[in-house]
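Let us work through a complete example step by step.
Step 1: write down the sequence.
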Amino acid sequence: MNLFFQPSIIATFISITVFIGAFFSAPAQSDHINDQVHKEKIIWLVEDKLENRDLLAKTSAETSTASYIENLIIQQLSQYNVKIERVTASRMNRVLKTNDNACVANRASTPKRREHSLFSDPQSFYLTHKLYRFNQTSALPQQLFNAEGEIKDLASVFTLLPEKTLGLAQDVSFGIFLDQQIQKIKPENIYYRGGNKRVVALSSMLYKSRVDFVLALPVDITPNEDQKQLIEQYTIAGAPPYLIAHFNCSKSPLGRRVITDINKILAKVYQTKDYYQAHKKWFSDKQLADLQVFLAENFSEKRYINSTQ
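Step 2: predict the structure and record it as tokens.
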């Protein structure tokens, strides 16, 4: 008797065939669904220094201005798979150049960096770098200063005082103007400090007279009460009054989308009380008022720091 032609056997065979087909096709269908909901990965570079430890825990405007705003942006980029990677400052540029999905916060926008990467609208604002000197027994030569009491030219300090040393953070930009001034200083007059404690280390070296000068942001120089009496601060003539920090991503279609999304978030953040408070912590009332005048004159189409909230 030929069983293969019995209707009941045929129906069973067809059912088994359909089940097997559905079983083996399920993973392929699942993979397709996962592809649809897959989030594009962003390598979020964070410089491995003490100030950036516990970055994602800095949820208050009373903490570091840059870290607070950076955390705020990361939390709102939920459409991406953001993976934080701690790197040295020197490695940041290499990663941005060689990857199409890397971003970093708190960067100065310079022509060299714009060749291989993209920048957002302003992330935050700082009083520009100052030249610091500590516990000196004699005043600087008068010919170094202009009528406003500013250092005429940074390089001229070390031309007139060739035995002195300037301490600088390694592998960072001080902005276009000061970067050009630094290039004019002889290498033997510069001591570069890298590593994850470089900001603290440079201050310590200044206080211990291991370097004669330090060029740094005022926000990074925090002397104690005794040190405040002995520290000197000088403005460099011609330097922009403020350093503007930006988010910086790879120069790629993905990087451009991320920058666009960051700018949309920033447009809302600018109007919040927390954004104002994050800056107020580091500016006196007069300095903050001056900053708002500067922004009104140079960015009249936008309101970045809104004190009326």
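Step 3: interpret the result. The first helix runs from residue 7 to 37.
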